[in-house]
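Newbie here. two chains, one complex. Structure please?
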Amino acid sequence: MRAPVRVRIIGLGNTFGGDDAVGVLAARRLSRLVAGEAEVVEAEMAGFELLDLMQGVETVVLIDAARTGQPAGTIHRLDASTTPVATPLFAHSTHALNAVEALELARALGRLPGRVLVYGIEVEELGAGRPLSQAVGTALEHVVRQVLADVEATRDA
Amino acid sequence: MEQTPEQPNGERTIRVDMIARVEGEGALHVKVHNAEIRDVQLRIFEPPRFFEAFLVGRRYDEVPDIVARICGICPVAYQMSAVHALEQAFGMHVGGTLRELRRLLYCGEWIESHALHLFMLQAPDFLGYESAIAMARDHAAIVTRGLRLKKAGNRLIALLGGRSVHPVSVAVGGFSRVPRRTELADLRDDLLWARDAALETVRWVSGFEFPDFAQDYTFVALQPPDEYPFNEGPLASNRGLAIPPVRFEEHVQETQVPYSNALHCTLAGSPYLVGPLARLALNYDRLSPLARQALAETRLPLPLRNPFQGIVARAIEMLYAADEALRLIERYEPPADPAVPVPVGAGTGMACTEAPRGILYHRYRVSAEGVIQEAKIVPPTSQNQRRIEDDLRAFLPRVLARTDPEAALECEKVIRCYDPCISCATHFLRLNVEREEMTGGMGASRPSRP
């Protein structure tokens, strides 16, 4: 019998919201690449559902669009396992609850997985039905490679 | 929050640059001259109508999927208003079990949306916490109850469609597939728990201390003859309005105000209130016996006219929705067809349904081929915006003696009473806040979320 999957990758966003789709699209790409090494969830517009989605695995990787005012395509990578995320990384989420709030709520309730990595990708184009902007498309590729490396590191750990 | 010290000329400006714990983002700007409130502006930033433009050129059967993405909280409401409006455009009506399934789906959305607002967004105000996260550290059981209630609602939505990519989904004419009886029966235990939890919640919130702040509202809600409203019914008010929803635009005026990107709505020139308080005021005799009894046990005088008691109205509606969902599941027999045939043709259709936050109006003009030519969406928060400002105007004198941060916090509490879904009213918001001239020291702006 195979060991249970230890890593879950969760992509957040709105696929009708231009760059806001980036987390979901990154997850979609990763689902074809991780090949049984991790579970991948496209959590379109998830809010509090995230609390449940984070249960039952050792490591969670969250990917979402970020809006902190830095140039589009900037990648934020945070290890939120033990330290609360103070940055208002996803201050303007259209989902019910942004990724950081969900994981801080999970932390307050003692329901946080052992390891939580958060990727935020700075976005610019949020118009309904628009494609990913170029900068964000490039960042998506970087994030996919980095997450694959994270998954690899977990396996070797 | 930013503050300016009182200026020599007696001017004082209270600003909340980002209102915490509301869906989406808005800002409040209040100008006070000596003890006189000069200006109250609830600001919402966004080029609106993104989605309305985006819908044009799409086929009618793509609409439910697209509008479900407008709001992360109430995708079902958007789908419901859309399919009812499109069915009206095609001159058809969906009744019987399909109609009941839509009601059931709406029950799920009310439960999840009301649980979110009640437990996560508004309860911290009454219990003295800055956020649900802070509240969770001391009141894990309460927060967990809220999350479980929300999940019970979400399960209903997941089963019957809503926004998730799922074999069953909402369609013009009905559904793409209807659930089996056993699929619905699986939800029964969850809903029985939810009903008990909602009843407990009514008792809990009705014991909160409410500021003495009853207002003289014009309540507007759907008022069907013999049921609590979800999908259908004439539009009614406590001031004599009684019209079919298709005449919404003849009575409601939308105006653009320079400081906000959301349109303001008025009824015969005056602000009005939509949402749980309005629905309850116009329909409390249509609640189920259990919900009616729970309301009576609160001993609060009806109709509830205090915006702070909106939390009680939400708890009552959550109880009603669980009760109604159980009733609908009990009597469910799958219909022969998941949808009735759609007689696609040129036309214009309008509909109002009761989103958790109040009336959601949609109008579509459709070509003979079923392609959307024009779309119009009026969300509940636009309709309440003027009323929120009026409430703030009435409320401000009682907090003016306090420091700006304290006064601003109290104003935020008033705004949160309405559960404003600012991301719906504007579809998306940007961060930029127009800076007024400042004199002297000012605080740093505070993130919208803790």
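Moderator note: The first strand of chain A starts at residue 7 and ends at 13. Residues 134-156 of chain A form the longest helix (23 residues). Thread marked as resolved.
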